[in-house]
Write a structure and sequence with these properties.
Helix content is about 30%, strand content about 25%. By secondary structure, it is an alpha/beta fold. It folds into 2 domains: about 260 residues, Divalent-metal-dependent TIM barrel enzymes (TIM Barrel, Alpha-Beta Barrel), CATH 3.20.20; about 120 residues. Strand 12 and strand 13 form a beta hairpin. Helix 8 runs antiparallel to helix 11.
């Protein structure tokens, strides 16, 4: 089946290539666009020197790259961490100020989504609603194993606030680290343990235990090991292992109404283009069936393949091809709707009109603009209505558009209200007693429009039988 899921990448994935001078940001983006990646996710501080202040030189350079390579900025990552200051937690008011600065930053660089991480007060999301709505920037909480997992009470409270807020500008950004089926050597914490001298036997023991028990049991066993262990390197490794989680993708299905962006974490891509540790086969169908239309932002945290950091990226995109289809894979167009109402005068019918005292004072019909530019009302040059041979002059006509009402004779100077191409205008005809609704009536209609630059007018006419519209 088709879908609207798009391909993105976080620039975090190739930061080392730029930092070590092996490639420029432009070089990296060029490689990625060749793979079908069109969305760039920022960690603002990686590119913008004064983030969340907007350095205009950096902004110009970033926008020039987006234009050159046909990509766009799809998200910006930031932290509002309660532990920012030594000795005390960040207050809610201080957190709101940090949030607002990043919302303003995102708006200034035309970035639609910001992803929040760190340990924040869930009430921040309640305070965020008016700010995000004012600037048109969506705030998503990263759902990440360990630090911001949906099993944590603080994240559960945040999810409740998001549901209560009922706004498209708040939501979640699930990270694929919530669906880790096995611990592999490419993960940063296994590599770190090996560098710190943790013996292979203990590493394999922790990996094997993860396969054998539930998330809850694994955390309990890790807690017992931590209480007994004295080796700092092993303790650090156990702490990292304890964060690892494997959830049923059905849990994500329940949260799909709140998914605003997706983080495509991956650690290890084999030669057959499979992620060896994460349940992509289970999660991607949930995104499709849930109607997700945003980006999957690839986030690589593994080692280069054969010395090339982009080879895993290529394999990752080929893996997405297997589950999502070749990019893009939009649904087939729906069957064309059979159009039955295309005349200058709409064939939907007419309605009798009543005054405040309940007396029938006339009727209304609906007429369509056929001029491609649309016109302000002052360019309606003439209008004629007749019913069953009875003619109604322009002194009997009132025009209603955009919740405003104008007598025809008063429209010569009305420039602020438009009648746009294809749209219906309500024409109210003054006729005490209205029309007999028990029978159809013959309507003859004409309007004449002046145009901006042509030396002639456009005239539209229609003749048809109409019946009363029943409420």
């Amino acid at each position: 089946m088709g879908h609207f899921i798009k391909r993105g990448v976080t620039i975090y994935s190739f930061k080392e290539m730029v930092a070590t001078g092996q490639m420029t940001w432009g070089d990296c983006i060029a490689r990625l666009t060749a793979m079908g990646v069109t969305g760039m996710e920022l960690l603002g501080q990686l590119f913008f020197r004064n983030c969340p202040e907007v350095n205009q030189e950096d902004l110009a350079n970033w926008k020039e790259m987006m234009w050159r390579y046909g990509t766009k900025t799809v998200a910006h990552d930031f932290f509002v961490d309660k532990t920012m200051f030594k000795g005390r937690d960040l207050t809610l008011r201080e957190s709101v100020e940090v949030l607002k600065r990043h919302v303003q930053f995102a708006a200034a660089i035309d970035c639609p989504i910001i992803r929040i991480g760190g340990t924040f007060d869930p009430e921040l999301f309640r305070q965020a609603k008016p700010i995000c709505e004012e600037y048109g920037v969506t705030l998503g909480v990263e759902i990440h194993n360990g630090s911001s997992s949906w099993i944590l009470p603080s994240i559960q409270k945040t999810l409740d606030i998001i549901a209560q807020a009922d706004t498209p500008y708040l939501g979640i950004i699930p990270d694929m680290s919530m669906f880790v089926e096995r611990i592999v050597d490419s993960t940063y914490f296994v590599q770190g343990a090996l560098r710190q001298g943790v013996d292979r036997e203990f590493i394999e023991f922790m990996k094997k235990m993860y396969l054998e028990v539930s998330n809850e049991e694994y955390r309990d066993r890790c807690d017992k090991l931590l209480a007994e262990e004295t080796d700092p390197a092993k303790k650090s490794f156990i702490v990292q292992c304890r964060r690892t989680e494997n959830h049923d993708p059905k849990e994500l299905a329940e949260l799909m109404p709140y998914v605003r962006h997706v983080h495509g974490k991956y650690w290890e891509m084999d030669e057959d283009c499979n992620e060896t540790s994460i349940n992509y086969a289970g999660v991607l169908p949930v995104l499709i069936e849930g109607g997700y239309e945003g980006y999957i932002s690839a986030e690589y945290e593994g080692r280069p393949a054969d010395g090339d950091v982009f080879k895993p990226q290529e394999r990752y995109q080929k893996m997405l091809d297997k589950y999502l289809g070749k990019f893009p894979n939009f649904p087939e167009p729906a069957e064309p709707v059979k159009v039955t109402d295309t005349e200058v005068l709409s064939n939907v019918g007419y309605k009798n009109r009543y005054d405040e005292d309940g007396n029938c004072c006339g009727f209304e019909i609906y007429t369509r603009c056929f001029y491609y530019r649309g016109i302000p009302l002052c360019l309606i040059d003439a209008m004629e209505v007749s019913v069953d041979g009875e003619k109604f002059g322009e002194d009997k006509l009132t025009i209603e558009v955009e919740d405003a009402s104008f007598k025809f004779k008063d429209m010569a100077t009305v420039q602020a209200y438009y009648w746009n191409y294809g749209h219906l205008l309500t024409v109210v005809v003054d006729k005490p007693g209205g029309l007999d609704e028990s029978v159809p009536h013959k309507f003859d209609y004409m309007h004449r429009l002046r145009t901006y630059y042509l030396p002639f007018n456009h005239t539209g006419t229609a003749s048809m039988e109409l019946t009363a519209i029943k409420e």
